[in-house]
Amino acid sequence: MMSLDLLIFALTLTAVSGLPGLVMSRTSLWSQRIAASLMSIGALAGLIGAFGALRVPVYATANFPWPAMGNSLLGIDALSAFFLVPIFLMGGLGSIYSLGYWPQRRHPRDSKRLHLFWGGLVAGMALLVLSKHAMAFLLGWEVMALSAFFLISLEDQRRECRRAGLTYLVAAHIGTLTLFGFFVFWRWATGSYTLQPPAGDALSLGVMNGLFFIALLGFGLKAGFMPLHFWLPGAHTQAPSHVSAMLSGVVLKMGIYGILRILSLLPDPPVFWGGALLVLGVASGLLGVVFALGQHDLKRLLAYHSVENIGIILMGMGLAMMGRSLGRPEWVVLGMAGCLLHVWNHSFFKSLLFLGAGAVVHATGTREIDRLGGLAKSMPWTAPLFLVGAVAICGLPPLNGFVSEWLVFLGLLQAGMTRGTSGALAMVGAPLLAMVGALAVACFVKVYGTIFLGTARTKAAVQAQEVPFSMRGPMIVLAAVCVLIGLVPMLVAPILDAVIANIAGEVDVRQLSLTSLAPLEIIGAMSALLLLCILSLWLALFMKDRVRRSVITWDCGYACPTSRMQYTASSFARTIVAMFGWILRPRGQQPQLQGSFPDPATLQSHVDEVVLDRFIIPGFHVLEQCFGWFRRFQQGLTQHYILYILITVILMLGTLLPFREIFTFLITR
Amino acid sequence: MLGMGLIETLIHLMLLLLLPPLLLGVINKTKALAAGRVGAPYLQLYYDLFKLMRKGMVLSRTTTWIFPAGPVITLAAVMLAGLLIPFGPFNAPIAFAGDLILFAYLFGLARFFTTAAALDTGSAFEGMGAAREVTFACLSEPALFFALLVLAKKTGSLTLNHMLHGPITVFPAPAEAPLVLVALGLFVVLLAETCRIPIDDPNTHLELTMIHEAMSLDHSGPLLGVILYASALKLFILSALLLHLVAPFQSGYMYLDWLLFVVETFGVAVLIGILESLMARLQMKRVPYLLTGALLLCGAGFILLVR
């Protein structure tokens, strides 16, 4: 009960964190300082509460007798607490980061708005995770969706920013509408709006299928797996960087939370649900990373990597669901552990990478990868921190990404060991996940190499300077968490066990702890051994003061290499982009060179968002044509709209009329 | 029992650390003999390593700490991978459920830092080499996984020790068809990962066509030595993996078995040497086809097994 009170306190504090700033003057620096400190205190309280609830698995509820919201219930269980950790961690770190990244002095116009909606976003997510009733859930969901919209379109003076915001808003509202439909359906099927497991076998298979696939659509639009990811690259690119970090690291996870919550409430599913999740996961994983390879914009590239990582999360989830259907506790434990740990890990390393991208943008003013270079020398803090994120997201040892991917792998292989086709099919996921890993390495070598290594390609990159401590601090915290989970993965095992027990359905997993299936302590020891090896080799090699000479890069004998001779990010990824040309559809202009001394020529190549540009936008154009007649009702006259409101109110009041009594009265007369 | 285990581990470590450079000597000697030359002595790489370790180094002004870290991390990762793989009929020093994944991902870590170090120089040639390395790995890595999958499925174990010691049966039996396919695929992966002909030519003189050699153009002195040593280690480890499939012979006597293992490893080196004498390097654009072929072979092996 104690932790729930603490969490409600944290929720309230974060929700109002932006309010004091509203009454202050535009030039005052205190508005954002107050907002950041309120947010940090709230986040700290929330983290303590969430960890308290995770340490001692409790199920506490609190009633809010508010009839309009159907006497909303708030409650905390391990699953909720698990998702609260990244929300509050990133909420606090992001608000500190924004002190340096979006200072009031340079952004007097929109800084207050930023803090107001940042508070709204965090509080909305915390509310939806805590709520055990459909109405409070939808309230939190909508606050989150709208706050995110205002944060994405913060710089609404730019056209592409407005466009990205609008695409996001449409996607978010289709999602919300689907969820309204879902909860009405839920009410019809279970007889209540509370998020409690329905009694007995009240649900027929058809109803369960309906519920699951509507939920998958509604929550999937938020989670952003293929092909529902179309809003994601634009939104993540145009938002301020710490907002992108929050969107990618945490907001997407709310979709995952929704799916997990619904799955935890439903009885054991048919096996094809797990199969569908697994296939969706593999498709998102592969296509996400391949699309990422084709990007030139750093934040857009990172956005596509979110699609990839959501894919890996879904693979774990799919495996666990197959385990639930087939009654295999070890699949459930390994798959779910991989899924959940990757939720955390992705929120840590992806936030770290986006904050690093923000630092790069802050220092150079550009997001174009091919305009940067050599930043490792001028930004001695950001570069290694970004490297930690890059190694972690590739799933390489000794960092946290490896631990969760290893759990997913182990689950898939374990499934393949058992007899039966579903296990063998699940096993095919393993080589595909390995391919995703190899492609991710290609992508992040490209990113890190082009941005931080080599020499500066433009003047902006030459003049880059390290960012202030308020921006470095949050990155250091996130990098430390990445290293910690990589080296001591045993720490998270009890937490994961508690959450898995929540989602396992009828499969009995109480006998199986995660550490009995997966030797996490050996993984930790191997990571430590690896670091030790590296350290001792380094010392052995550089202990002796060797003769060193500094020269220019050899470059096969050419004496004055320039920065323009470096391999670019586009060339680096060219072969892979060509290999996947059938889906990426790269667009480009080949230069025409003529004569012995041709004129200067330019080469361009782009990889567009296939789903948005080829399906969604043409589809909406068709819809627009079909509904051309509807424009008649939308003339922009205030009087008309007041009339519509009046008609709606009359109709709604009309439903209160006792029609039956009136009819019987009329007929009997 | 503990004593035996300790001796095994010691021999494992000794072979892992000392034998690999000799393999390259055998390959080069085979190639020289096939071309009618005398060739460099078997121990040439040891001499080179000693020479390089005593030298100073020349560093490019463009580089950062990533540049020396590349070879160091590569060597550490490859050494650790060597501790996971069992040699011959003996057990690996470190074994746990799921160590095959760590084995594959350690190579991934090595690749990340090798290619990052290459990009650190800002040279176009090293960028090219790095790009090719990561591109081809996208095909060879799933192939390796399919191969490990077949072994895992066949033996019902997720520990490299059991997986690799499992498939000891009379070889050309029909039930072993998946293993034949996998062995072929794995051989191509070995050639790709260790940058041998027909994927890459370690002796080419043209930087434009290099993969692995292009990435080490700027490394000198001890760093170059570390790179050479690490790639020899990689060759040794992957041949030890392959040997479990193609030559699962054992005598039952401990020291004889170690000897047998060493001889078999030289056999792989001779095979690579003969192949390099007979074939030319493939065109760069055809390499993906070869690797896709390897991927399909391993995948077909998997399908045969679970059908």
Q: What tags apply to this protein structure?
A:
heterodimer; A: 669 residues; mainly alpha; two-stranded antiparallel ribbon; two-stranded antiparallel sheet; B: 307 residues
Low-pLDDT stretches of chain B: none
How many strands of chain B? 1
Approximate helicity band of chain B? 55-70%
Structural class of chain B: mainly alpha
Structural domain count of chain B: 1
What strand order characterises the main sheet of chain A? 1-2
Compute the average pLDDT of chain A. Answer: 89
Stretches of chain A where pLDDT falls below 50 for ≥5 residues? none
Radius of gyration of chain B: 19 Å
* Count of helical stretches of chain A: 27
Q: Give the end-to-end Cα distance of chain B, rounded to a whole number of Å.
A: 41 Å
Number of strands of chain A: 5
Q: Given the helix and strand composition of chain A, which structural class is it?
A: mainly alpha
Largest sheet of chain B: none
- In quaternary terms, these chains amount to heterodimer
Dominant shape of chain A: globular
Q: Estimate the global geometry of chain B from the Cα principal axes.
A: globular
Whole-number mean pLDDT of chain B: 89
Compressed to H and E, one letter per element, the order of chain B equals HHHEHHHHHHHHH
- DSSP helical segment count of chain B: 12
Walk me through what this model shows.
The complex is a heterodimer of chains A (669) and B (307). Chain A has helices at 2-16, 19-22, 30-55, 78-101, 111-130, 134-152, 159-190, 205-223, 232-238, 241-265, 271-293, 298-326, 329-364, 375-378, 382-393, 400-417, 421-452, 459-462, 469-487, 493-503, 514-517, 520-542, 569-579, 581-584, 610-626, 638-654, 659-668, and strands at residues 60-63, 73-76, 548-551, 587-589, 604-606. The termini of chain A are far apart. The mean pLDDT of chain A is 89. In chain A, 55% of the residues are buried. Among the domains of chain A are: 322-540 and 564-586, no CATH class; 633-668. Chain A has 27 helices and 5 strands. In chain A, helix 10 (241-265) packs parallel to helix 12 (298-326), helix 11 (271-293) packs antiparallel against helix 12 and helix 13 crosses helix 20 (493-503). Chain A is mostly helical and 669 residues long. Chain B has one domain (2-306). In chain B, helix 4 packs antiparallel against helix 5 and helix 8 (177-193) packs antiparallel against helix 10. With 307 residues, chain B is an all-alpha fold. Chain B contains 12 helices and 1 strand; from the N terminus they run H-H-H-E-H-H-H-H-H-H-H-H-H. Chain B has helices at 2-18, 20-34, 44-54, 66-84, 99-119, 124-155, 160-165, 177-193, 212-215, 221-246, 254-278, 287-306; one strand spanning 57-60. Helix content of chain B is 69%, strand content 1%. Chains A and B meet through helix 15, helix 16, helix 17, helix 22 and strand 3 of A and strand 1, helix 4, helix 5, helix 6 and helix 10 of B.
